[in-house]
Amino acid sequence: MAASHMLFCFWVLLLFMNNAAGETRHYKFNVEYHNVTRLCHTRTVLTVNRKFPGPRLVAREGDRVIVKVVNHIANNVTIHWHGIRQLTTGWSDGPSYITQCPIQANQSYIYNFTITGQRGTLWWHAHISWLRVSIYGPIIILPKRNESYPFAKPDKEVTIMLGEWFNSDPEAIISQALQTGAGPNVSDAYTINGYPGPLYNCSSKDTYKLKVKPGKTYLLRLINAALNDELFFSIANHTVTVVEGDAVYTKPFVTDKLLITPGQTTNVLLKTKPEFPNATFLMAARPYFTGQGTFDNSTTVGILEYEHPSHHNHQSSKNLTIIQPVLPPINATGFAVNFTGKFRSLGNAKYPANVPKTVDKKFFFTVGLGTNPCPKNTTCQGPNNSSKFAASVNNVSFQLPTIAILQAYYFGQNEVYTTDFPTQPLIPFNYTGTAPNNTNVMNGTRAVVLPFNTSVELVMQDTSILGAESHPLHLHGYNFFIVGKGFGNYDPNKDPLKFNLVDPMERNTASVPAGGWVAIRFFADNPGAWFMHCHLDVHTSWGLRMTWIVLDGPGPNQKLQPPPSDLPQC
After folding, report:
1. Alpha helix positions (H), 357-472
2. From which residue to which does the signal peptide run (predicted)?
3. Whole-number Å distance between alpha carbons of 332 and 288
4. Is 383 in a helix, a strand, or coil?
């Protein structure tokens, strides 16, 4: 009896340890060409496993994930696991020339990381040039076994990825733009799960349809994978309850319209109407745009279709009223700031908001556009037809090195980058007032070095140079707390008095408001080299990007792991 009891205890302990440790999940991502037709244009698209959008990566909190990426195309490629903390595994983060050299044609690389303390919706995408326009897919992190959501279990879960479609090759578009100095051509359509929908020419068949039943609750995992556009999203005649942003649970709030920036995810609960409504409802996404250039001013539409109680009567759905949602105006900055201000961390005992209450280091970064002079004996198509568009942080336009910064840091190759990134603007000016006459940026590969576990406060200030504009900033390797935001120039004396240090939203991507500022805080508790950049890829290409280097801590789990043996070489 005693022996069998001990055996039983052993199995229970083993089960408990398995649950606590998580599983190891293996994936294989083949990056390959795939012909896709949209808007009557057939194009060879770069994809993972010939899927557009790409395959789901599903895991539980605590799981180890191993993804072998094999490059079957001519372009160099890397994959970024957007929002995954990558604690001590910076070699698997993915931004090209920051944490790794790219995977070259016919080569492979194994990304190996553990999902620690995270659950919810994130996503993966290519992180070199503009390849992420078609190389992207969802990451779904389920709670640990026997854990539940902090809201009622939905009847069904659905992933909705918003994206962009170009009729021509996006790599040719950005290559030409960087050569001429002009703004790049814009996309030809927005997409919902890869489909533009019926408002575009030659597109009525390419429409995403979500079939629902009356009286049910659906968890919609919304992801903005668009290349260059923040997007409004709404479902006609329906409200949704926001419960999560960037894989962080929120205090629930109800809305009928959402704003999602590129890089962000938002989980919402959709409660369908109690009875068949005799109508079909459109879901729509269109851009929020505050800049001065051209943009894709179009709308992608999908269909929310209720299952008819009499399944055999298919004709009825053809004659149903179609109801369209009302989206905010294109430049609705008031709505944008009001909406993002509704996000609050749960901030309870189980899901605390561990925001730094005191700060070791303060940084003030201007973010915005600028110019580079036209090279001698060439003509340029940028501002005044005499310069090239550029973008910068504290007037430093970041130049990608030719070997990865993390590699250079780890092996002590100090000539690859400098550690003199300015902690504040070198020449202060009226950031949101009349722009200075000289709009030229400095170019360089500069980083900020932080000792382990430094508590950081960073204020990012938009500028009016070449037009005030909203900039969604993404920080790799970290979540941060959004403690404040406002319009105009940041006031270091008055504005901190209004900071929320109780339940601020925790995210990995946040917008600097057009003509305003945002303040974030985080603990630098993850050693490595971490990219921070605007998630509008045109601005990243122009140089609105920089790198934080976080030093090792004293403990064994506070050190960057050694590089893997298959790390790609430049």
Report:
1. 405-410
2. 1-22
3. 7
4. helix
Instruction: Give how far Cα 239 sits from Cα of 121, 242, 244, 325, 384, Å.
Output: 20, 10, 16, 11, 46
Tokens standing for residue 180: 């001429």
CA distance 268 to 386: 47
The pair phi, psi for residue 4, each rounded to 5°, is -65, -35
The answer to whether the CB of 504 falls within 8 A of the CB of 514 is no
The superfamily CATH assigns to domain 361-550 is Cupredoxins -  blue copper proteins (2.60.40.420)
CATH fold of 156-308+320-341 reads: Immunoglobulin-like (2.60.40)
DSSP 150: S
**Tokens matching residue 106:** 């016919």
Kindly tell me if the per-residue pLDDT of 9 is higher than 50.
Answer: no
pLDDT (tens digit, 9 = 90+) per residue, 419-477? 999 999 999 999 999 999 999 999 999 999 999 999 999 999 999 999 999 999 999 99
Say what the pLDDT of residue 309 is: 81
* Mean pLDDT across 53-68: 98
Angle of CA points 37, 95, 81, to nearest 5°:
70
State the number of CA atoms in the 13 A half-sphere of 284 facing the CB. Answer: 20
Residue type, 106: N
Residue 422: the pLDDT is 98
pTM tops 0.90, yes or no: yes
Q: Do domains 24-142 and 156-308+320-341 have the same CATH topology?
A: yes
User: Which CATH number, 1.10.150.170, 3.40.50.720, 1.10.540.10, 2.60.40.420, labels domain 24-142?
Assistant: 2.60.40.420
Domain ranges across the chain: 24-142, 156-308+320-341, 361-550
DSSP 153-216: PPSEEEEEEEEEE-SS-HHHHHHHHHHH-SPPPPPSEEEETTB--TTSTT-TTS--EEEE-TT-
Would you call 402 exposed, middle or buried from its count of C-beta atoms within 10 A (0-12, 13-18, 19+)? exposed
Query: What pLDDT does 418 receive?
Result: 98
